[in-house]
Amino acid sequence: MGSIEELRFNWEIYGSFGGRKAIYRNFIDRRLKSLKPSWKHVIPFRSGNASGIASMALDPVEHRFLLCGSYRGNISVVDLENFSQAHPGQPVSHKFIPASNSSNHDFLITTCQWYSKDSSVFVTSSMDQTVKIWDANMMCHVEKFTFENPVDQIHWSVAKSKFPLIAVAQSTSNIQLIDPRGGHALQHLRWKSENVVSVQWSLVNENLLFTGGSHGNISLWDVRSGKSELKTFRNPHKRRSAVMAIRFSPSGNFMVTHDRSRVFDVWDANSLKHKWAVQLEDRRSVHSTMKHLQFELCHDGTRLLAIAPADTEVALLELDSGKPRPALHLLHGHYQGVTSCVYRTTYNQVISSSSDRLVLVWSPEMDEKKPETEEIKENELHQDAWSDEDR
């Protein structure tokens, strides 16, 4: 089995559905453990994003368009399926689509997100105190919302809803809600006891919003009632560390939160009961210039994995084992702090950005085999051509 396409084509020969599923998941495990920097896919840089990428997002429909927001506020899209190749065995040149200069933000991009149902629309937030909704076909913004404070994080609801809202966190007690239909923002919720640094909508209920606070608390809100939060809860260890990110597992069974103390807390998504905590090694730290951490969850294999920045490395950390220090696989390739990670499920690829101004594509080793002619050339370069008489 040399590639994911071959396995998908042939896996029906392996007996029952449960057996096929187990074989498939184990195969994905092997692919994820063999990730290495791709020689085929090199994400191009232009003058607009040469300062480095602070935030990324992969479109949820085709897993094809990589949205990039730079430290300077520039927005660009890389088409991972549209590329040219000068010679076999050489890296491909991906199509790079920059935004119009008049539409770009003024400062660092804190969040990028595609609209969950349409790859022609996306939203961005910035430290320039604005949130913008974009037309991806024209690469210009169509709506702009200005706030009194820098925007730390946003999340556009992905639940089934005719009118999904955008939640905005600004390290204040106010939680802004944007209604794209009316083109206006509503100051709808207020967390009196804490400042909000992270937001995440429920996967299944468009009215339920989770927020992470600056003192380690997590609150659940029903946006139909703006009086107060439905419930506030925190980890059993009572860490007073800002909750920088909240994510739900693809299955919807787990909620995972991450705070500045480098701890991932795993919760039961239905009962909202804390299950266990997983900590990165003490020497791993969050990139100091970022107020939030962009990590993703992967459950394609047998384990639930967090794919997250870990100082200059990318960490693949098991979360569902219940062990405080479970299996950890590190990807080495960046030279400075990693800022964001995305996972491309169709190819089991990880894409990471860093303040070293590199965007790396990590592919399974079996997908990175070079053409036979190129391998022969490389082997010839490394052969010992000296004879005993020459020596």
Explain the overall architecture.
The chain is mainly β and 391 residues long. Among the domains are: 1-33, no CATH class; 36-149 and 359-379, 7 Propeller (Methylamine Dehydrogenase, Chain H). It has 3 helices and 29 strands. It has helices at residues 4-10, 17-33, 372-382, and strands spanning 35-37, 41-42, 53-58, 65-70, 75-84, 92-98, 109-115, 118-126, 130-135, 140-146, 153-156, 166-169, 174-179, 184-190, 196-201, 208-213, 218-222, 231-233, 243-248, 254-259, 263-268, 274-279, 296-298, 305-310, 313-318, 328-332, 338-344, 349-354, 359-364. The strands form 7 sheets. Strands 2-6-5-4-3 form a 5-stranded mixed β-sheet, with no helix packed on it. A hairpin with a 4-residue loop joins strand 13 and strand 14 (184-190). It is globular, with a radius of gyration of 22 Å. The model has no long low-confidence stretch (mean pLDDT 84).
Task: Pick out its properties.
single chain, 391 residues, mainly beta, Methylamine Dehydrogenase, Chain H, four-stranded antiparallel β-sheet
Map the helices and strands:
Layout: H1 4-10, H2 17-33, E1 35-37, E2 41-42, E3 53-58, E4 65-70, E5 75-84, E6 92-98, E7 109-115, E8 118-126, E9 130-135, E10 140-146, E11 153-156, E12 166-169, E13 174-179, E14 184-190, E15 196-201, E16 208-213, E17 218-222, E18 231-233, E19 243-248, E20 254-259, E21 263-268, E22 274-279, E23 296-298, E24 305-310, E25 313-318, E26 328-332, E27 338-344, E28 349-354, E29 359-364, H3 372-382
Parallel strand pairs: 2-6
Antiparallel strand pairs: 1-29, 3-4, 4-5, 5-6, 7-8, 8-9, 9-10, 11-12, 12-13, 13-14, 15-16, 16-17, 17-18, 19-20, 20-21, 21-22, 23-24, 24-25, 25-26, 27-28, 28-29
